[in-house]
Amino acid sequence: MLPNPIMTASGTAGHGVELAAYLDLAALGAVVVKSLSPEPWSGNPPPRVHEARAGMLNSVGLQNPGVERWLDTDLPALAASGARVVASIWGFTAGDYGRAAKALAAAREDRAAASAIVAVEANISCPNVEDASRMFAQATSGTYAAIDAAARALAGASLPVWAKLSPAVTDITEIAGAALDAGAEGLTLINTLPAMALDPLTGRPRLGGGKGGLSGPALHPVAVRAVCDCRRTFPDAPIVGVGGVTTGEDAAEFIVAGADAVQVGTAIFEDPRAPARILSELADWGQRHGISSWSDLKRRNAGDERQHADDDQHDD
């Protein structure tokens, strides 16, 4: 489906062609847009980002114009750029996921630009009001409900649903299984880790929303393990690795772990050209090591049990 494995990550490349001034969007595997809800949402108060030692905290709060306005104002330019588009959706209830997905499915029938959409990524790693103490992705029941609603709404629209999962769970494979059972055709691993920063003089949060999510290099080893665990549990499921990718070698590590594609996120805040650079570095890395294709890299390591610890080995 994708010409190469490098994409942007939702929330880091805007809703449209914001990065077009820095790189050729059509040269990427896909552009994943900022998460969209059925209705416009204003997000959290500032400040919304805070630098961490090995990454970044964010509390943007999923600000977005709503699916319908995005279809009208942002998607046409994205489609004209030649980009393949992954539409990320979110909601407070499972029904919201169904409504957002339904709007995307309808657009496939009457908007030419919607042909640029190649997948729908259900961001179920956000707070919801059906169970205020959890994200959808922290419970199998919530995961199933949200993904089922999106998958049903997209039935017949030729758009696969990817479930974007949280690392803040006891067993991510259990949550992933619920998503796949509900109709997800792929897994995006992972979203940010819940985190917080305080001003030690005042004791007040450094983010306007109080708590936030940790992204960047500190998250990378966590994401690699999530990809590895889910690949071993679900050998045939499409998997997208995301978390702390700053170099081509980071992307190669995800592919070795079992990812079919890789998203670049926080690195874009430092360097808007990062996705294109990482794609070039990944190609160079492959040439240096005699690897002719990404699928060759994946096949080369898929059967090598030495790359993983034994199933029965305990963590230290």
How many domains, as an integer? 1
Any idea what the CATH superfamily is called? Aldolase class I
Overall form: globular
| Cα gyration radius (Å) | 19 Å
What is the first-to-last residue Cα distance?
Answer: 40 Å
Q: Which CATH class is shown?
A: Alpha Beta
Structural class: alpha/beta
What percentage of residues falls in helices of 4 or more residues? 25-40%
Short synopsis of the structure:
This protein is α/β, with parallel strands linked by helices.
Task: Provide a descriptive summary of the structure in words.
There is one protein chain. With 316 residues, this protein is an alpha/beta fold. The protein has one domain (6-44, 61-195, 213-307): TIM Barrel (Alpha-Beta Barrel), CATH 3.20.20.70. Helix content is 34%, strand content 16%. It has an eight-stranded parallel beta sheet with strand order 1-12-11-8-7-6-5-2. Helix 4 (140-154) links the parallel strand 6 and strand 7 (161-165). It is globular. The chain starts with 5 loop residues before the first strand and ends in a 14-residue tail after the last helix. Mean pLDDT is 92; it is low at 305-312.
